[in-house]
Q: What sequence folds into this?
């Protein structure tokens, strides 16, 4: 049975974010996060490939396009993009698990279990970070409106 592996596209998109969010762009906390995610996705992809080779599975890589962004914008936008990619990867993994279940491939089902659990945790983490950073962004915007000095009209000068 051909098996699909979806980590490569997500990995390159996460790496692209890691390169964008580096010390030079003023968002180092995202650089470390995205670099770590790229390394984790790369290791998961290697583990999948080893599993498939060990079980003589055919490797069919789906095409996952890198997001069409040259500027990731704010940290919130980068987190939204990362969450979207994680959801796509989860869907691919769930589809693979469904296929393995239909074909009674117990080894693959066991193997898939830990990755789907990791995906759930990662998505939960991204959702939490997204909520937190949206709140921080909103507070910063509200503070900026209070900090703006009142404009003096030309009549008063």
A:
């Amino acid at each position: 049975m051909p098996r699909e592996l979806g980590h490569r596209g997500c990995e390159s998109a996460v790496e692209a974010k890691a390169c964008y969010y580096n010390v030079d762009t003023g968002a180092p906390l995202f650089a470390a996060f995205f670099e770590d995610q790229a390394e984790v996705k790369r290791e998961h992809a290697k583990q999948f490939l080893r599993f498939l080779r060990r079980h003589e599975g055919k490797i069919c890589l789906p095409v996952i396009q890198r997001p069409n962004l040259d500027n990731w914008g704010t940290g919130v936008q980068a987190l939204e993009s990362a969450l979207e990619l994680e959801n796509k990867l989860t869907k691919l993994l769930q589809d693979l698990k469904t296929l393995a279940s239909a074909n009674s491939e117990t080894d693959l089902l066991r193997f898939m279990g830990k990755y789907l659990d990791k995906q759930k945790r990662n998505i939960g983490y991204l959702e939490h970070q997204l909520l937190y950073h949206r709140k921080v962004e909103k507070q910063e915007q509200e503070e900026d409106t209070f900090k703006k000095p009142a404009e003096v009209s030309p009549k008063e000068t």
In short: The beta strands are 2-4, 58-60. The chain has four helices and two strands. The mean pLDDT is 77.
